[in-house]
Amino acid sequence: MRLNSIGKKIIRVDGLSKVKGKALYPQDIYMEGMLYGKTLRSSRPHAYINIDTSRAEKIDGVVKVFTYKDVPGKNCHGVLFKDHEVFCSERVRRVGDPIAFVVATNKKAVEEAIEVIDVNYEDIEAVFDPLEAMKEESVKIHGNSNIIYHYKLRKGDVEEAFKRCHVIVESEYKTPMVEHAFLQPEAGIAYTEDDGTIVVCASTQYPHFDQIEVAEALEVNKDKVKIINPAVGGAFGGREDITLQIHLAIAAKVTGRPVKAVYSREESFLAHSKRHSMIMRYKTGCNKDGKLLAMEAEIIGDTGAYASWAINVLRKAGVHATGPYEIPNVKVDSYAVYTNNPFAGAMRGFGATQVPIAHEQQMDMLSEKLNMDPVTFRLKNIFKKGSKTATGQVLEESVPIDRCIKEVADRIGITPLSERGGVV
Amino acid sequence: MKKIKLTVNKKEYMLEIKEDTRLIDLLRDVLGFTGVKEGCGEGECGACTVIMDGDIVNSCLVLAFQADGKEIITIEGVESEEEIHPIQQAFLDVGAVQCGFCTPGMILSAKALLDKNPSPTREEIRAAISGNLCRCTGYNKIVDAIERAALYLKRGK
Q: Which residues form a coiled coil (chain A) (predicted)?
């Protein structure tokens, strides 16, 4: 087989424009007669709101202050559930929820106007601990339950298998939420073409989803919405949900002028998703030869105020809960839970990144209890060609984890006891 | 308002500016040098790095009037008319460019280093770009590229 790209050094297509500083990110686009926009965001985690924009609208230079009343179509969006509002109508569910969007002829007027929008907050009890949020009596963020997803994985009989284990370790692990902090803060510019088509230029990971969401909020056909994705200054999952696309589209449509918005770093932190923080309870057991027999895990992912990709993320956490180890008896329950925390969504690894904190610590503790070196212990249990995963997948292609572990052990100066002729 | 005179990329500008205008806003919004990037607005990320009288500065932390009488180089001023700068070429050849948002600042920090120290160690390179964040975390390739650039520059002489 002749390969044209693989194994060859290819200079990326956008490389030259980037080293020259000519690559256009949305904040680099300036248009004749453009207006500036800025979002007013909730300062409370859970509250009913009343908004009065009249003072802001009187500020010199302010063209309009947009709120939920100005959304022509559906006041909602979301990649799985439409649980985000374009602008909060009655209630805010997290710090950072968008309430209004000020559009003015200059940046100063925008800043001044944001300060004088009156938001009357009537606080509601908030819940920040996902374990509390799972309880029947907890305050609900949306609908009747805060548990939006429960993934169950069952393989073999863990109860019976634990009885046969020589060593069992049990522990609880917590990972925090993580911010993507892509270097280019969200920015965008929207304008109307002569035939009424709304164009939104914004760095996004999902131009085709954005097009649908913008069209639904504007109540226009999809072919009347164009999303242009210029250079993207990093994303890492943090640009999978809508941030400013719909706000800009509505503002451009109503004012008939180009509207630009650039988030500050602080607003960027508030606006987009985070990596799901997780609570992971693990019980893992092996026989006296160090062969894993059983694993039981409960994983609770805090998705904050909105679902975003919670279902996919917690499913993936569940699927990957065993790590790269063949375990004949497995029971996993993973949950995605609403709270009033910042919302969580996609971030590098999509749920597969958190579980290694737990399963690898379990491996270390088991090997320590067995008095076996951790490299040998792992090599005994890893997936190989022909292994069956906990979900029943037979790995038929290349599975070179042994090479990876040996290479790592070698480079950090650990030689497995088995190769040193030691007792295993 | 205040009158200032400064040189950007070898061209002289006489400008009337507001006292609270930041250098980055002058460069981007007034003069159109959008290769100067704003990542944080508080001097943490280095995306807005420019060279001012031979030293790198965060243009988000410099007020425009402080650049009065100074000579500024932005990414747009690094290449010659005929070709891109050897540092830019090295970044391309090594694959040190990912999302590209840190790239202008990285290249300018590299230039400020190599202008003074044509044969830096990897340690010195790391120190020179320590004020520039790359969130794609492509630091090794960036250090490789600066090492390569030092070679290109020597060969060119």
A: none
Among B77, B108, B125, give the residue marking a domain's end.
B77
- Quick check: is A310 in a domain? yes
CB contacts < 8 A (A, B): 94
Look at residue A29 in the predicted model and tell me its pLDDT: 98
pLDDT in tens, A354-399: 999 999 999 999 999 999 999 999 999 999 999 999 999 999 999 9
CA distance B108 to chain A (A): 10
The last residue of one of the domains, among B77, B96, B126, is B77
- A424, pLDDT greater than 50: no
Which residue type sits at B35? G
Residues B50 and B99 in one domain: no
Q: Which domain holds residue B96?
A: 86-156
Q: What share of chain B in percent tops pLDDT 90?
A: 96
Q: Which residue of B has its CA nearest to A262?
A: B38
For residue A22, list chain B residues with Cβ-Cβ distance below 8 A: 35, 76
- Token pair belonging to A339: 């709270």
Please count the other Cβ atoms lying within 10 Å of the Cβ belonging to residue A214. 29
Nearest CA of chain A to the CA of B19: how many Å?
15
| Cα B87 to Cα B107: distance, rounded to the nearest angstrom | 7
Contact A265 B34 (CB under 8 A): no
Q: Which of B35, B36, B101 sits opposite A234 (nearest CB)?
A: B101
Question: Residue A25 falls within a domain, yes or no?
Answer: no
pLDDT more than 90, % of chain A: 94
CA distance A316 to A323: 11
- Answer yes or no: is pLDDT of A416 > 70: no
Q: Is residue A138 part of a domain?
A: yes
Q: Quick one: CA dihedral A327, A328, A331, A332, positive or negative?
A: positive
- Contact across the interface for A183 and B97, Cβ inside 8 Å: no
Give the HSE-up count for residue A5: Cα atoms under 13 Å, Cβ half-sphere.
3
- pLDDT tens per residue, range A150-208: 999 999 999 999 999 999 999 999 999 999 999 999 999 999 999 999 999 999 999 99
- Structurally, how many domains does chain A consist of? 1
Tell me which chain B residue has its CA closest to the CA of residue A13: B92
